[in-house]
Amino acid sequence: MKIYTGGGDQGETSLPDGSRAPKDSLRVRGYGSLDELASFLGWLASQEELASPPHPARFEGLVTWAMEAGSAVSHGSGPPPKDIPGSVSDLEAWMDDLDRDLPPLENFILPMGSPGAAVCHVVRSQCRRIERELVGVGGREGFPSWVLAWINRLADYLFVLARWLNQAAGRGDTPWKQQGR
User: Fold this and answer.
1) Which fold has domain 19-76+83-168?
2) pLDDT > 90: percent of the chain
3) Exposed, middle or buried, 64 (CB in 10 Å: 0-12/13-18/19+)?
4) Across the chain, what does the average pLDDT equal?
5) pLDDT (tens digit, 9 = 90+) per residue, 58-77?
6) pLDDT by residue (tens digit) across 74-92?
């Protein structure tokens, strides 16, 4: 299969049902953003701090979930993946495990720290942008509800993972000290 067709050279792309859509349509932007997320999760998985188990298997699952979410948005339907690590319940369990090692969160923190934690914050904030974008797609064009629940929980997991990575690196959280109020 050739990677290039020339069919998108005029700013349109084919949807799974065979119809054409502008590349800036809500649906195309939505599944394109999920494709970006899959790549960013792959980048996060490559961080040295996440090289030991259980992280590689978890991130392979999360990249797969991002690809499946993109497919569900492009089709407008589709079930969540089965038997792949990274479901909403998996993310919640992983957060609970990590949270046991963390001090209570008492204020907002700055999105920084160790290299892995910093990348977690980049990907987390991307999740939040995608979530906002997908609300627009869902309101106008529809897609399965599991996608929003998953992206929301993924952002939560990445926040907790960033805190955990900073703690493991001996850095802890950097509190935000709001100025001028």
Assistant:
1) Hypothetical Protein Ta1238; Chain: A; (1.20.1200)
2) 71
3) middle
4) 92
5) 999 999 999 999 999 999 88
6) 998 888 888 899 999 999 9
Secondary structure class of 51 (helix, strand, coil)? coil
Pairing label, strands 20-22, 12-14: antiparallel
The residues, ordered by sequence, that sit 6+ positions from 149 with a Cβ below 8 Å of its Cβ are 88
Tokens of 161: 């993972």
- Specify the pTM: 0.92
114 contacts: CB under 8 Å, gap ≥ 6 = 49, 165, 166, 168, 169, 171
Domain ranges (residues) in the chain:
19-76+83-168
Nearest CA-CA partner of 59 in 70, 74, 49: 49
Q: Are 114 and 49 in contact (CB under 8 A)?
A: yes
